[in-house]
From TrEMBL:
<protein>
    <submittedName>
        <fullName>Methyltransferase domain-containing protein</fullName>
    </submittedName>
</protein>
<dbReference type="GO" id="GO:0032259">
    <property type="term" value="P:methylation"/>
</dbReference>
<dbReference type="Pfam" id="PF13649">
    <property type="entry name" value="Methyltransf_25"/>
</dbReference>
<feature type="domain" description="Methyltransferase">
    <location>
        <begin position="104"/>
        <end position="201"/>
    </location>
</feature>
<keyword id="KW-0489">Methyltransferase</keyword>
<dbReference type="InterPro" id="IPR041698">
    <property type="entry name" value="Methyltransf_25"/>
</dbReference>
<dbReference type="InterPro" id="IPR029063">
    <property type="entry name" value="SAM-dependent_MTases_sf"/>
</dbReference>
<keyword id="KW-0808">Transferase</keyword>
<dbReference type="GO" id="GO:0008168">
    <property type="term" value="F:methyltransferase activity"/>
</dbReference>
Length: 283
């Protein structure tokens, strides 16, 4: 029996050492539409997270920062941005109602997928600050900035929970696009970001949930994508907007898979009591 267990562990370690497109693979690429999809899901749950790349399943390391660091090179292609997630990004930035010259904070900016939309919204007189914990993801964002010669975009590396130390407010708007549900100290990140937005400014949260209604047929794919990204779906982070801001708007897109919530920030002394201040934020 010990021999068989050791053999299984050795096989598992061998799987973990396999690579595909530079990612750690815990199972051979599997066609998403083959009958073996359930087996692939179980393999994924056993050995690691799963990335959906077209019709391929690729497993990667489970740690959040490492996951995005390893996958940074292929993130824009593999993330499903064009097919699924761009709609939420566009909706959030439209609802922020940005104007020329506005200062915007992008928390968890990743490879900078929101930057083109933000640059267009604030114009050359505006200022955009992007914060991300992954140096590899941020490097992709920097290349995007240099390539487009955006001199009014600043990128800072650091944890979202330390955003108050990393970015100097006040900002006219802030946004979390597919980031608040994956960061470790998410409540702290939210509270600190609120303090950086001026009273009357806007804040947006875009994140994911499992699809509902007739879209449930796509739930396995959505679950894979969320598992890959390290999304903590139980947080339902968009609810923070309704709890802590006013004049809120909540849109549900793509069959319930994408949630967009936007609200106006009020002064600290008149803020709704949706979240309790964390003493650590006063350090």
């Amino acid at each position: 029996m010990p021999g068989k267990l050791q053999q299984r562990r050795g096989h598992r370690d061998h799987l973990r050492r396999e690579t595909f497109l530079g990612l750690d693979v815990a199972a051979p690429p599997v066609n998403l539409f083959r009958p073996g999809i359930l087996l692939a899901l179980r393999i994924a749950e056993r050995f690691g997270a799963v990335a959906v790349a077209g019709c391929m399943l690729v497993t990667v390391d489970l740690s959040s920062v490492h996951r995005y660091g390893v996958g940074a090179r292929f993130y824009d292609v593999l993330s499903g941005e064009r097919l699924v997630y761009r709609t939420g990004r566009v909706a959030a930035i439209e609802l922020l109602a940005l104007g020329a010259g506005d200062r915007v904070l992008d928390v968890g900016c990743g490879t900078g997928l929101s930057l083109p939309l933000l640059v267009d919204a604030v114009g050359p007189d505006g200022r955009i600050v992007g914060v991300d914990a992954s140096s590899e993801m941020l490097e992709r964002a920097r290349r995007r900035v240099v390539r487009n010669r955006w001199e009014h975009v600043d990128l800072v590396r650091g944890a979202a929970g330390d955003v108050a130390r990393l970015a100097a407010g006040p900002f006219d708007a802030a946004l979390f696009t597919y980031s608040l549900a994956i960061v470790d100290d998410w409540r702290r990140a939210w509270r600190q970001t609120l303090t950086l937005v001026r009273p009357g400014g806007r804040i947006a949260v875009v994140d994911t949930a499992l699809p509902i209604g007739g879209w449930r047929i796509l739930a396995p794919v959505a679950r894979l994508a969320m598992f890959t990204g390290g999304v903590h779906a139980s947080r339902q982070v968009w609810r923070m907007v309704a709890a802590d801001t006013v004049e809120t708007t909540h849109r549900v897109l793509n069959g319930g898979h994408v949630h967009v919530a936007v609200g106006s920030v009020v002064a600290n002394d008149s803020r709704p009591s949706g979240t309790v201040p964390d003493p650590r934020d006063q350090r």
